[in-house]
Amino acid sequence: MTSGINVRPARLIAALIGAALSLVLAASPAIAMPVYNDLPNKLPPSAASEGFEATSTSQLGNVVELSKIHRGRRNPRVTFALSDAACQTGGGETCSSAKNSSYSWPVTVSLYNAGPGNTLGALLATQTNSISIPFRPSASPACATKGKPGEWFDKKTAGCFSGVTFKNSYSFAGLTLPNEVLVGLAYNTQDYGAEPTGVPGPENFLGVAMVAGAPRAGANPRGEELFVSSIWPQMYCGSSERLGVFAPSGVCPSHYEGNLPGFEIEAEK
Questions:
Q1: Dihedral over Cα of 145, 146, 149, 154: its sign
Q2: What is the pTM of this model?
Q3: For a tag site, which of 28, 190, 243, 266 has the least CB within 10 Å?
Q4: Section 87-113 average pLDDT
Q5: Cβ-based neighbours of 38, under 8 Å, separated by 6 or more
Q6: Is residue 22 part of a domain?
Q7: Which DSSP state fits 87?
Q8: Domain tally for the chain?
Q9: CA 234 to CA 56: how far, in whole Å?
Q10: Is residue 119 in a domain?
Q11: Residue 5 is assigned to a structural domain of this protein
């Protein structure tokens, strides 16, 4: 009799604990994990880049394969790296920029399906934001003595650089990604883009930061091949067949030198 009396309260307590745990799990926010990442743990002061004005380009990106370990595909956040060589005033040895000075410029991130046969698939989502872009630091006399006049001096690395790298992130709430996705970056410059400005500006010195090496999460199923929209044949490895179309670049290590755009994609399960 005694043991029978204690069973019901024990079962009731277990049921209440289970219900409470279910409520906690349901209320817990989903955790976003990196499903693709070829950005270094810490950005270098400056990086190789593809400047749109210098290369007659309107859009640049590549196909990435999302991680098979972290299976998250929902609500992705895309982080990208850019490099800017614009001075607040002047240029070269007269380059001068106030500390922490910046300008705003709209940058578009577009996500596409990876089409069959290395073609452009359907557009999944696109987002344009005006982001804060830092001016590169002022020219340093220390760099002139090192034979690099006009560049700025980084105390942490004791190096001289012509540009400055930075990151920005866009969130795509409500979107679920496929296992392979094409990420593209676009912005306007004086002569190129969806709506060229027609006037010189600091955006002419902006470029997509390029990185080398295997990604730390995910993979590059197209190897070193990019997608690009440009009217300069060199961006398509010398071919003139696809000028002005967002299409595969071909593989030309002599131009891209094995570098790919710096992206990170985080997503929830």
A1: negative
A2: 0.87
A3: 28
A4: 98
A5: 211, 213, 214, 215, 216, 218, 220, 260, 262, 263, 264
A6: no
A7: -
A8: 1
A9: 10
A10: yes
A11: no
